[in-house]
């Protein structure tokens, strides 16, 4: 699985205008919907917000991976963004979030969903990748960082 092929540059927003967790999730869902990635925007949004209410997806290193399973899409879809100002996601490490990767997949596609979550998490363990994400000021630069580091660190 190549994240940079699923997460295309037109599914990346830098900066996000949202200033809170729910607004950031909604903005990324709306980006996917506008690009034709969703067949049921409201169903996808509800699934992600419901999952987020169960337990935070702020996993540390300034990263949040809000995600959900919904019939609102045919295949795994991914959107990403960097908020203009850090957002409190009640992250496990207590730090605000500066990079958000949102995933939505159909309920019957658990494998790709888990693979994408794992791959994003592995990338965030690489300091150079985190630095490249922090430095990205355009959708193209953020997408390029993902493409570069997933290629250079391919392991799954």
Protein model, in words:
This protein has 156 residues and is of the alpha/beta class. The protein has a single domain, classed as Mannitol-specific EII, Chain A, CATH 3.40.930. 45% of the residues lie in helices and 17% in strands. The chain is built from six helices and six strands. It has helices spanning 3-6, 21-34, 41-54, 110-124, 127-135, 139-152, and strands at residues 12-16, 58-60, 63-64, 67-69, 77-83, 99-105. Strands 1, 2, 3, 4, 5 and 6 form a six-stranded mixed beta sheet that branches. β2 and β3 form a beta hairpin. It starts with a helix and ends with a helix.
Number of helices: 6
Largest sheet: 6 strands, mixed
How many DSSP E strands? Answer: 6
What is the average per-residue confidence, as pLDDT, rounded to a whole number? 94
The CATH class assignment is: Alpha Beta
Between the first and last Cα atoms, what is the distance in angstroms?
Answer: 7 Å
Q: Percent of residues in beta strands?
A: 15-25%
Structural class by SSE content: alpha/beta
Number of domains: 1
Superfamily (CATH H level) name: Mannitol-specific EII, Chain A
Q: Could you name the CATH topology? A: Mannitol-specific EII, Chain A
Helix content: 40-55%
Low-confidence stretches: none
SSE ordering: HEHHEEEEEHHH
CATH architectural name: 3-Layer(aba) Sandwich
Task: Assign an overall shape.
Answer: globular
- Cα radius of gyration in angstroms: 14 Å
Features:
156 residues; alpha/beta; Mannitol-specific EII, Chain A; 6-stranded mixed sheet; 17% strand
Outline the secondary-structure elements:
Layout: H1 3-6, E1 12-16, H2 21-34, H3 41-54, E2 58-60, E3 63-64, E4 67-69, E5 77-83, E6 99-105, H4 110-124, H5 127-135, H6 139-152
Parallel strand pairs: 1-5, 3-6, 4-6
Antiparallel strand pairs: 2-3, 5-6
Helix pairs in contact: 2-3, 5-6
